[in-house]
Amino acid sequence: MDWGTLQAVLGGVNKHSTSIGKIWLTVLFIFRIMILVVAAERVWGDEQQDFVCNTLQPGCKNVCYDHFFPISHIRLWALQLIFVSTPALLVAMHVAYRRHEKKRRFRNGEKIDIEELKNEKIHIRGSLWWTYISSIFFRIIFEAVFMYVFYYMYDGYQMPRLVKCDAWPCPNTVDCFVSRPTEKTTFTIFMLAVSGICMMLNLAELCYLVIKICMKGSRKTT
Amino acid sequence: MDWGALHTVLGGVNKHSTSIGKIWLTVLFIFRIMILVVAAEKVWGDEQDDFVCNTLQPGCRNVCYDHFFPISHIRLWALQLIFVSTPALLVAMHVAYRRHEKKRQFRKGDQKCEFKDIEEIRKQRFRIEGSLWWTYTSSIFFRLIFEAVFMYAFYFMYDGFRMPRLMKCNAWPCPNTVDCFVSRPTEKTVFTIFMIAVSSICILLNVAELCYLLTKFFLRRSKKAGNSKQQPNHENKEETKQNEMNELISDSCQNTVIGFSS
Predict the structure, then answer these.
(1) Are A43 and A184 in contact (CB under 8 A)?
(2) A134, A195, B39, B229: least buried by Cβ within 10 Å?
(3) Domains and CATH numbers, chain A
């Protein structure tokens, strides 16, 4: 189970999304997951190995690294991407449930074509609309939570070159130097920017769905 | 999601490209992405490990490496390739939208729709005309912009395209000035020049494709202007529609369609 499998799972959800949802999914896969796998993981690859402290004291480097990097950026991004992708599965489950109900009615003798049922594109109406809206809402919440966690854990989005550490067993205060801080800052800002774009796409999709239902409602009353 | 998945996504776009577009895509995948994955990543693999400074001062090497290599070549190339590939997705989205509209027409039972079968709609190759022409041209334009921006970023960040053997560093905590030696500078220079050369070839292909599309557009317009002067309008519309239908039949002759009568 890796990013490729997630892509296969979410690809199926794509069929029942709005156009904005499809753009969101493309941005997620190409500008976030792909960048993470192809570039960011290499940048953070040697983060502990090349974390150097100006001391000969054994254990000091380990303790300082652990103190300043409780959870690595890469792992936080992986968690963020998984949590943000998962609400789409609510929609997939709802669609599968609807299909299952139709198949049951077909088996009970109603006249519905099974092939057509499999390929049918289900419109976002009724209870599916509520499921879809909740999934977008949860996506926005997860994005915001992770962006805040990043900000809180690392005091902003910039990776410092030097961190001063006085955790035991380091003698007094020790200078520790981070590996590739500029490259890490660049990628952190990039991932943050794309995260912001994804949030805006989700908000746009939310507005679009709400407006669509209001317009449909007003058409029915007139 | 890796380069293979990008290849799958872009492979779909290939069907609707011009011949020059197909050549561009091949050059992109074989001479850039494949070279990056198969060769360049190994050359840059030990870039920080084997970046050696003439000092025992802890932290000096890290700081000097960070100072001289703010973003590694490999990451810049990866970003460049992703950004340059992405405009093609605009075209894919436009084609998908057109197909969706035609399927909707088909389902509604519209008599204007020429297709007998949803399979035929799926396999149809769209001609680069009308709004699709504009989308396609904008995607080529964006590709050119991204290529140029990244080439300039490389030149600006690394003061040219050559990798020096020795760098003199005096950033804190290095004591005074320290000599630092880059790992595999000649091999890196060779690959940098190679990637720049292929990048330029891709730019030339994009410019050629742009010229080709513009020329085709102007020729078509002048033909239409010429035809409308010679013949009455309604006969011309039927003839051009007949021509288009014939072209569609010949274009999609590889599909197993039980043809439609003219």
Answers:
(1) yes
(2) B229
(3) 22-46+72-159+183-219 (1.20.1440.80)
